[in-house]
Write a structure and sequence with these properties.
- The protein is of the alpha+beta class.
- The chain is built from 8 helices and 15 strands.
- The strands form 3 sheets. An 8-stranded mixed β-sheet has the order 4-3-5-6-7-8-9-10, sandwiched between helices. The chain has a 5-stranded mixed β-sheet with strand order 12-11-13-15-14, sandwiched between helices. A two-stranded antiparallel ribbon has the order 1-2.
- A hairpin with a 4-residue loop joins strand 9 (184-189) and strand 10.
- Helix 2 (22-46) runs antiparallel to helix 3 (68-82).
- The chain is globular.
- Bound molecules: 2,5-anhydro-1,6-di-O-phosphono-D-glucitol (AHG) and manganese (II) ion (MN) (2 copies).
Length: 340
Amino acid sequence: MTTLNDYFQSYLTATSADSSSKQSAVVDVINTITAVGKEITELLRKGALADIHGEAGAENVQGEQQKKLDVIANNLLLEALTANKHCAGVASEELDDATPANESGELLVLFDPLDGSSNIDINMPTGTIFSILPHSNKGQAATNAEFLQKGTEQLAAGYLLYGSSAMLAFTFSEALDTNNDGVLLFSLNPTTGEFELVKKNISIDADTKEYAINASNARHWLPPMQQYINELLAGTTGPRGKNFNTRWVAAMVGDVHRILCRGGIFIYPKDTKDPNKAGKLRLMYEANPMSLLIERAGGASTDAIKRIMDYEPTNIHQRVPVVLGAKNEVEYVQKLHQQA
Ligand code: AHG
Ligand code: MN
Ligand code: MN
């Protein structure tokens, strides 16, 4: 049995990282996030008894109603990360602007404190998503502009899944992954309170028969996406010649976790409902971290045409269409869009 602490210790020893290195800073920040993840797990376990259900009574910068647990999770992460000496600033789904932290910090942290908010009150899976970027202006407090880096710049990314068990998935960037462990999965042992290693080098099959999309928006999708889903629905009687199955957790963390465990494709496409919104999901604290995990596991992640991690961000809260998972399937969606 390898605990998260054991793993990080051997990682830092193998990389001969001293306490001031980038690797040990990233490890320290992940430890801070997982400590908060344990607190959120406890709150969710108590559920209605911890007074975490229902609305907080405010809207976030996206114009979405905040749930009580969105606010609680955000405050816990904000407090813990701004106290971490390596963290120069944090940006969150629930905060209009980035919060500067420690001027000497060399890292920036973005997070979706509680993903799948509509699942909280019905005792269904939720999660926390995080993305860690370098802070190049060391010695200066971090502002919004410093966060606007491409997904390819991420040093590490991951999520905590609060499901029937609590799990942690994360990956270092290829450059920092000196042990070549790829995407790692840990499970929280409720008896010891430690995360224990379940799997490493997770790899996603290039082909799949399972897809995730909220089909209630079908009439708003662009024609190539409508065609793609119609082809899947036609099963053995259509051009794909095989039957597909739908799954939708309504929390991206849950859907991405399923894809890391048994493959599949997840789509939140561009639609024409609101011309000001390119998609529903947020580039910097949802799409980019999940893209790093998916690509490092051999999958692909695009906006239907373009690679997500190549986006030059213009706003910390910008939205992006997302098509990620099984490589051949993501490429097939891309082909349909390129032909259109
Ligand atoms: P959040 O709860 O952080 O706002 O994110 C919810 C997102 C994503 O996790 C999920 O895949 C999607 O919204 C669910 O959308 P629908 O409400 O259309 O099912
Ligand atoms: Mn989310
Ligand atoms: Mn959220």
